[in-house]
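Next comes a concrete protein, fold included:
___
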Amino acid sequence: MRFIRFVKRIGIRFFTEQFFDHAAQTAYYLLLSIVPFLIFMLSLVSFLPIKENDILSVIRPYAPANTYALIHENVEAILQKGKGQLISLSFFSTFWLSSMAIQSLVRSLNEAYRIKRPLRFLKGVIRDLGVTLIFMFLVPLSLLIPLAEHLLHLLISAEVIGTIETASPFLKTWTAIKWGLGTLFLFGFFILFYKILPSGKQKLKSVIPGAVFAGISWQAMSVIFGEYAGAVNYTRIYGQLAGVIILTLWFYLTAIVLLIGGLINAERERGVTPIPPD
């Protein structure tokens, strides 16, 4: 009964305080920033011994098929025009647009905790820009997974750690290992996300429930939505805009998961230490 009341309280807050509107705003900023961000990441690939397709394959398990195809085509088309000038341009575009998404999430999470922002406007903006930089350089750490895979194949092909035949059993389990590593990275990412984004100080253990919810729910949502988007012919309704519509919906559902995770943390904290209303 206590759990049911907790879930009910979160649902009531989500709809009565219009967090679905906050999710739509965040989805819009994420939509604007996704291509510059991927170009920025792919521009860094030139400094690493991995291919561009290896990087795009990181998002493939989560993104719906039409969405992945749209991102892949646009990023490749832009990269072919000249890589040398892209890293600085994409960095500033990503920094500006991502900071808007971060500021939107900060406002939403502050409302979830029902706390006023203690910092003045300029200091608050500087803090948000700093947080944006942290996440801009944290997310590329996911490149370590395809980098490790590339290194593994090099070692096997050179017969440093065995032949292809002897390493075959391990390679078969590599997909599961890669998924597990990606999940651990997601949990760590969401823990940091919920700890540093809200304006108030959050204890590490207080943000774990929301991070676990976000990590599991986001992966499940992405898989289910990917199957649904693949089964429904959006092209009949939206024509050439189908890929953009699916990408927008995916970002919207992603933002909903993030905000519900924030509400879970906020409501648990209110149950332990009441947070004064605005």
The radius of gyration is 20 Å.
